[in-house]
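Supplementary Methods S3. Input chains for the assembly prediction are listed below.
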Amino acid sequence: MAVVLSNEFVSRGICRMTVAFKGDVLPGQFFMLRAWDKDPLLSRPISVHDYEDGKLTFLYQVVGKGTEMLSRLTPQSDVTLQGPLGNGFPRITGDLCVVGGGIGIAPLYYLVKNYRKHNPDGKCRVYLGFRDVAYGVEDFEQAADEVNLDIGGIITDQLQVASGEVVVTCGPEVMMKSVAKVVPAENRVYVSLEAHMACGIGACLGCTCATKYGNRKVCQDGPVFLRDEVFYV
Amino acid sequence: MSKQLATKFGEILFKNPVVPASGTFGFGREYEAYYDLEKLGGLCSKGLTLEPKPGNSGIRLWETPAGLMNSIGLENPGIDAFIEKEWPHLKELDTVTVVNVGGKDEESYLQAIEKLNAIEVKLIELNISCPNVKAGGMAYGMKAKTAGDITKKVVKLSNHPVMVKLSPNGDSVADIAKACEESGALGISLINTVQGMAIDYKKKAVVFDNLYAGLSGPAVKPIALRMTHQVCQAVKIPVMGMGGISTWEDALEFIMAGATCIQVGTMNFVNPLAPLDIIDGLQAYCEKEGLANIAEVRGIF
Ligand SMILES: Cc1cc2nc3c(=O)[nH]c(=O)nc-3n(C[C@H](O)[C@H](O)[C@H](O)COP(=O)(O)OP(=O)(O)OC[C@H]3O[C@@H](n4cnc5c(N)ncnc54)[C@H](O)[C@@H]3O)c2cc1C
Ligand SMILES: Cc1cc2nc3c(=O)[nH]c(=O)nc-3n(C[C@H](O)[C@H](O)[C@H](O)COP(=O)(O)O)c2cc1C
Ligand code: FES
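Predicted structure tokens for the full assembly:
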């Protein structure tokens, strides 16, 4: 159980919630959240958007019953958290290029911030694509060296990846697949996958994805995979 | 061990009647991070087949009001890998590990059973009720005749006691249970998931690649309770009841309906500590009611 510190809409249908939490949390990891008894039945997987000084932040889009209920939580109310879960992004050395689409930007902010902390001299470039309204952009502008914005277009149209840059992408599957396609083979590309989840801890086999090495669980072995592991190229 | 909750299932002693259900508990490891598995009465392994199985393609989970539909399709590493990688760990645990076995045809069931003769399993759960595989699976569990036939062959071949897991989707469960009893089953477990269907009207598509899937969770509880009662009335061998159990009160209702043990499935996903909460709740109930053993309220209807 954790206490909600703040929970506000930052854009149409997009909420930012901060809760009190102590623990080791890696960028790319997620939590299973619930703030209800048995209806809806399952907890909701939501990525870590930021973590600092015992404050854990989620950025989420209201799409159905669960996220709608989360969006109505007021400060001081309780939310049940299970996690952190999943592998998270690997520690990145060298230059970083991040490509986020829509709510897929959620896990990327903590990644960029963390990267900056550990690589003061590294270069970090960010591409953010939105269908109609942009959000969260200023946060990225503070943490990254360069932010490229696209609204209503196709983000990969302007994507230029430098030699040696590590690419990390999260967003709609079609976007991640096209990122995987346009980035040269010499660059390492990490994708953060989604799957319907029941347990979030590797017990139900509901989130399986096919990989080069056979089936893997998105919740436990992922959600972060290399592009060639998951046949994105 | 709690005197009030210690339960004999046939000749097998369970510390308490609470057992996580097959397919919802992996091989236990994932939940070890949350609690000591030796607190459990027992645990059921993921359904194992002779050969490794990759499971079904496409979406595998779909939430419904108070329920969960799954189409896992018995993804598992196969019996050999289980014996090599999981069993050494499980056999050291001071709790009853129930090994759940599925198959695609008689031959594959029997070969799997034969391989399990090499290890000291306390109880086999013969799964003739999986609705999510094309061949075998539920097919054996739909009719008393086929259920009885496969049970007889498995019991004959196995060195271990066999409990048969029944489907809610076939002919009268009481008749099927009786056929299994006559064929030498030590016990019965039920229910496996209820076959259902999901359609995504926005995409004008069925949700599951396998078309139909299995429904579990609180939504199925009244059906599961009724079927558990019918089977308990029909047979003398012990029964493990399950289907939608989410609280100790639910568990108690299954015991009152006649179940010797109960299994907890989907609720493990909702609350990883659910089995422990249920054990504690049953213990407190016994103390409050002054019961020497939970058996005093078993099968009272
Ligand atoms: C590892 C991971 C991290 C995620 N991180 C974020 C995040 O940071 N911010 C954010 O806004 N969303 C995130 N999502 C997606 C989020 O989990 C879903 O939007 C949410 O579960 C929808 O719940 P709902 O009740 O509002 O919608 P409903 O559509 O009513 O949900 C019905 C069921 O489908 C599941 N479901 C629906 N959409 C998705 C989806 N896209 N992915 C997985 N399950 C889904 C729900 O969990 C629920 O069981 C993440 C998903 C995963 C797998
Ligand atoms: C994700 C999932 C996987 C399952 N896998 C198996 C399995 O491998 N073998 C089996 O006999 N039953 C399997 N079941 C059925 C459960 O063991 C149980 O019979 C059913 O879910 C009803 O109980 P519940 O409502 O408490 O979940 C599975 C159920 C779920 C939800
Ligand atoms: S969500 Fe259960 S195994 Fe991944």
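Residues A 30, 40, 42, 44-47, 58-61, 63-67, 103, 106, 194-197, 223; B 63 surround flavin-adenine dinucleotide (ligand 1) (CB under 6 Å). Chain A touches chain B at residues 34, 38-43, 82, 196-208, 210, 214-215, 220 (CB under 8 Å).
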